[in-house]
């Protein structure tokens, strides 16, 4: 087991209480009990015979067989008074064996899987985080939350805050004026690969659907090795030379951070499944046996309600779907998620390797679990999921942007991801602090934010149109912090990923959009959210490889907000001698002088470890 500082580890099954303080408890409906929490043995007790498989026998591909409709009107309900939701989190290592293999995960208050944050639209979320990992720094991003007027609470390390060092305490406080399905995850050194991730659900009492019960369903790839040595070898010259810089391949797939979980079902009722791919690297196909999914929300945007049999979900994307229960409840049904394996290097497949995970809709707990199903990838086109608010195409465009996606080797021979030929290298001062303190004469000059942060300054209310040209053969799910993006066009996805938005319909809008391999997308948004908003591929290995750009959005208006940096934010910087002002090179006297800025990553990368080992990983640990 890889732990260079022997951090304190607790067993996830030994802890029964939580010190979380919150004004309302997590819905019991979202609590799913795995059939086997201590070993993966139950996997083999269920037949995998393909002859026993049942499919929902779609008559045609999802590109052509999908039925969409407008939702029925719902009676208006009084909205609850805004609440302040306080969470107190101790971040620490927790041993768990979600697929039968025990390893440490980054847990909260002695437990892993991590709890959901639950709120209503308009609530304030306050999370007091203490880093008790011992050997790693941390930082938390709230994926999809716009952080209007609270850019300092967005989370990415050295972008909107300093890393939270071991022993450090840091307070995130922000208002959630948006409904929908989100998630939180570490945004530092690949740490969320090691399990620091969980749902963030914002309920809307006036949602355009009525259901009896809501379930949260996370899907995630699992690595048996911890992230630091994987990052180290991934970014090594040896990997660049011998494996063309290939990423490590996961060992298995999880649903709700477990396998064979059961979702209790009552005949005749309607269920909402909030599906979140919280994985690090792997897009998945998902299917319910003999139950269609009616999509009602993607990435926090209500959509035209389209019924389909299969979803394709990239890391960081969310789909909320309604499942209509059968009218009789004698039988149980299988759920299957299956990895899209196209990016896996065949020579790097680990010894323990399972690309699929099952779960079950359980109507009758006395009846046997059903045979598993098989998945055959179908054509999938999210552009048909047009927003219910009918927001038309933004325009006219005032800030056209263009980026190429490439992979290359840097001066040290490491394989790096680039946008417009620049790989992201973190600045010496967090970019937000540069923007909060730069003189007016320099504030809108992108160069002060550092060459290798890939900085783009957007004027307030600019209508941005970004075309991304993917020179890589693989698809990449790009995420923009602080906004949803309209998908104006997409090409190159091939027959499995067509682009057929309904004629004349408003463009699909979401915060994570797949850019097809060797293809391109054109995206639009309005720069009406002053702050620092990262734009990056959400495959976590590619974040580590530098496939990131930095939008410095309306810095003049950002300064006019006169943000008051919380004292805990100043303290974690002071404890690590990181300056609260200055340009990307740390120069607070002459912002135009970037001498000494970071332009090349370290030769040895070890994620968020604070005391990295002195010897390189040497190879991928294939377990
Ligand atoms: Cu990528």
First-last Cα distance: 11 Å
Put simply, the count of helices is: 8
Q: What fraction of the residues are assigned to beta strands by DSSP?
A: 25-35%
What structural class do helix, strand and pairing data support?
mainly beta
CATH hierarchy class name of the domain at 399-574: Mainly Beta
Cα gyration radius (Å):
23 Å
Largest sheet: 7 strands, mixed
Strands, count: 32
Poorly predicted sequence stretches spanning 5 or more consecutive residues:
1-8, 13-63
| CATH architecture name of the domain at 399-574 | Sandwich
Give the strand order, joined by hyphens, for the main sheet.
2-17-16-19-14-11-12
The dominant shape is globular
Helix content: under 10%
The CATH superfamily of the domain at 399-574 bears the name Cupredoxins -  blue copper proteins
The chain-level mean pLDDT equals: 91
Account of the 3D structure:
Among the domains are: 213-384, Cupredoxins -  blue copper proteins (Immunoglobulin-like); 399-574, Cupredoxins -  blue copper proteins (Immunoglobulin-like, Sandwich). It has helices at 62-65, 227-234, 237-242, 431-437, 440-443, 540-544, 555-560, 567-575; strands at residues 9-11, 67-69, 84-96, 103-108, 117-120, 124-131, 140-143, 169-175, 180-186, 197-203, 213-222, 252-255, 261-264, 270-277, 284-288, 293-298, 301-308, 310-313, 318-324, 333-339, 356-362, 399-409, 415-419, 455-458, 463-470, 476-480, 485-491, 509-510, 512-515, 520-526, 531-537, 548-553. Helix content is 8%, strand content 32%. A hairpin with a 5-residue loop joins β22 (399-409) and β23 (415-419). The chain is built from eight helices and 32 strands. It has a seven-stranded mixed beta sheet with strand order 2-17-16-19-14-11-12, with no helix packed on it. It has a six-stranded mixed beta sheet with strand order 23-22-25-30-27-28. Strands 1, 3, 4, 6 and 8 form a five-stranded mixed beta sheet that branches. The N and C termini lie close together (11 Å). The chain is mostly beta strands and 623 residues long. Residues 1-8 and 13-63 have low confidence and may be disordered. The longest helix has 9 residues, at 567-575. The structure holds copper (II) ion. Copper (II) ion is lined by residues 476, 537, 539, 542, 547. The site of copper (II) ion has 5 residues, from loops.
């Amino acid at each position: 087991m890889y732990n260079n500082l022997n951090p304190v580890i607790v067993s996830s099954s030994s802890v029964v209480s939580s010190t979380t303080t919150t004004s309302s408890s997590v819905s019991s409906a979202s609590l799913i009990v795995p059939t086997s929490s201590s070993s993966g043995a139950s996997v083999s007790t269920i037949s995998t015979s393909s002859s026993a498989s049942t499919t929902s026998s779609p008559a045609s591909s999802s590109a052509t067989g999908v039925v969409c409709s407008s939702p029925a009107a719902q009676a208006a309900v009084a909205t609850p008074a805004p609440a302040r939701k306080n969470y107190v989190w101790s971040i620490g290592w927790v041993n768990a064996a979600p697929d039968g293999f025990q390893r440490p995960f980054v847990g909260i208050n002695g437990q892993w899987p991590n709890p959901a944050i639950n709120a209503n639209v308009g609530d304030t979320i306050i999370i007091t985080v203490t880093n008790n990992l011992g050997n790693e720094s941390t930082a938390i991003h709230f994926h999809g939350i716009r952080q209007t007027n609270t850019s300092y609470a967005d989370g990415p390390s050295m972008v909107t805050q300093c890393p939270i060092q071991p022993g450090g305490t840091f307070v995130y406080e922000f208002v959630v004026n948006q409904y929908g399905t989100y998630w939180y995850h570490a945004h530092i050194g690949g740490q969320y690969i090691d399990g620091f991730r969980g749902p963030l659900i914002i309920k809307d009492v006036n949602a355009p659907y009525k259901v009896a019960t809501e379930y949260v369903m996370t899907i995630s790839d699992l690595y048996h090795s911890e992230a630091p040595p994987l990052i180290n070898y991934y970014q090594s010259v040896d990997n660049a030379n011998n494996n063309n810089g290939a990423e490590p391949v996961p060992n298995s797939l999880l649903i709700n951070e477990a396998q064979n979980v059961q979702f209790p079902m009552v005949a005749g009722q309607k269920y909402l499944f909030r599906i979140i791919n919280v994985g690090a690297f792997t897009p998945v196909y998902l299917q319910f046996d003999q139950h269609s999914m009616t999509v009602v929300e993607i990435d926090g945007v209500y959509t035209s309600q389209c019924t389909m049999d299969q979803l394709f979900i990239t890391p960081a994307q969310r789909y909320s779907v309604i499942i209509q229960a059968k009218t009789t409840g004698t039988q149980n049904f299988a759920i299957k998620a299956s990895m899209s394996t196209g990016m896996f290097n065949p020579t790097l497949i680990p010894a323990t390797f399972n690309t699929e995970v099952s779960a079950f809709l359980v109507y009758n707990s006395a009846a046997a679990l059903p045979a598993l199903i098989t998945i055959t990838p179908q054509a999938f086109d999210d552009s048909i999921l047009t927003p219910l608010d009918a927001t038309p195409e933004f325009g006219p465009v005032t800030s056209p942007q263009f980026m190429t996606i490439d992979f290359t080797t840097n001066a040290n021979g490491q394989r790096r991801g680039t946008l417009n030929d620049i790989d992201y290298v973190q600045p010496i001062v967090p970019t937000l602090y540069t923007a909060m303190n730069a003189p007016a004469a320099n504030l809108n000059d992108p160069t002060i934010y550092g060459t290798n942060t890939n900085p783009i300054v957007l004027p307030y209310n600019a209508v941005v149109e970004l075309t991304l040209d993917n020179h890589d053969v693989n698809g990449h799910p790009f995420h923009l912090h602080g906004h949803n993006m309209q998908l104006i066009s997409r090409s190159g996805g091939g027959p499995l990923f067509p682009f057929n938005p309904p004629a004349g319909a408003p463009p699909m809008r979401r915060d994570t959009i797949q850019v097809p391999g060797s293809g391109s997308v054109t995206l639009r948004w309005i720069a009406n959210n002053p702050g620092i908003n990262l734009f990056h591929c959400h495959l976590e290995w590619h974040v580590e490889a530098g496939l990131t750009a930095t939008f410095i959005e309306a810095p003049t208006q950002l300064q006019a907000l006169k943000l008051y940096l919380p004292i805990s934010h100043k303290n974690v910087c002071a404890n690590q001698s990181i300056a609260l002002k200055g340009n990307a090179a740390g120069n607070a006297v002459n912002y135009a002088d970037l001498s000494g800025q970071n332009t090349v990553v370290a030769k040895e990368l070890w994620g968020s470890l604070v005391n990295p080992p002195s010897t390189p990983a040497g190879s991928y640990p294939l377990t």
